[in-house]
Amino acid sequence: MKRWEEQTALVTGAGRGIGRATAIMLASKGVRVAVNDINPDTAQATVEMIQTRNGKAVPAIGDVSNEHDVAQIHQTLNAQYGGVDILVNNAGIILKQPLQDVTEHEWDHILAVNLKGVFLNITHASHHMAEQGYGRIVNISSIAAKHGGGYLGNVAYGASKAGVASLTRGAAREYAPNGITVNAVMPGFTHTPMTDAMSNETRNRILAGMLIKRSAEPEEIARVITFLASPESGFITGETIDVDGGATLD
Ligand code: NAI
To answer: Which of 1, 148, 166, 204 holds its CA 20 to 30 A away from the CA of 53?
Structure first.
């Protein structure tokens, strides 16, 4: 078992929202956090928030759907810190229009960011984890995976997040012999820039389907991610955990 202070984490899409809250929470445990985002300014802002709190953070700028960017990020982290012990695949984008109106480019793009990005980061991070016989991978799916979208995002979004859930189970099976656990969190309605632009009508429709009549704060999702990333969660793998205010009830 590795202590928090001995570990390096990579959190993708950590320039804002759930990713930022997760990066800050992991850093508060003593973990060195590589803050990935496609947006260098927001990534740098998260790094500075962590450093202001006396935490350890470095920027790791790049597009998770781009093999070249992902390889470069992991090469740098391998060279500087010996590799990643904790990988949080959080970066994601949403599409809201009906399936009928989705173009081929939009379909390819959302699958590339939300699903291929998870595949690329897992395969790059797993070498070091397997070598040391320890690793924690936490993927961010969504309850849209179960609803076929239609809740926060559309069908393409739900399909991409269902792919993440399946990838989580398969990767858990493949990497278990190497001491690596792979789990997913399925957030429900969470108060982040992704959901800020929502109309009141949509907000009320979503709240009507929840037992707890409010959105989650990003920290409430980050807390579950942090538990799955912790040394203490070693007997949980291939699991998807709903954090959805009682929206799904399964
Ligand atoms: P957000 O939109 O506020 O933040 C996402 C971050 O990912 C942004 O900083 C963005 O720049 C970054 N990003 C986007 N594309 C990227 C790329 N190709 N490479 C690197 N970074 C990229 O989103 P939020 O709400 O914090 O969501 C985080 C994750 O949680 C996403 O995967 C989302 O699908 C999922 N989720 C969110 C829910 C919500 O209600 N907010 C509900 C269920 C799941």
So the answer is: 1
CA atoms of 103 and 13, how far apart (whole Å)? 24
List the beta bridge partners of residue 8.
32
In a domain, 163, yes or no: yes
- The yes-or-no answer on residue 175 being catalytic is no
How many structural domains is the chain composed of?
1
Q: Does residue 203 fall inside a structural domain?
A: no
Residue 202 falls inside a structural domain: no
Is the Cβ atom of 98 under 6 angstroms away from ligand 1?
no
Q: Are 92 and 143 in contact, with CB atoms under 8 Å apart?
A: no
Predicted pLDDT of residue 153:
83
For the chain, where are the E strands, in sequence order? 8-11, 32-37, 56-61, 86-89, 135-140, 180-187, 240-243
The whole model's pTM is what? 0.99
How much of the chain exceeds pLDDT 90, in percent?
A: 94
Q: What sign for the dihedral angle of Cα 129, 130, 132, 133?
A: positive
Please state whether beta strands 180-187 and 56-61 pair in parallel, antiparallel, or not at all (unpaired). unpaired
Does residue 195 form part of some domain? no
Tell how far CA 225 is from the center of its chain: 8
Distance 17 CA to ligand 1 centre (A): 7
Check if 245 has its Cβ closer than 6 Å to any atom of ligand 1.
Answer: no
Is residue 204 pLDDT above 90, yes or no? yes
What is the domain range of residue 61? 4-188+218-243
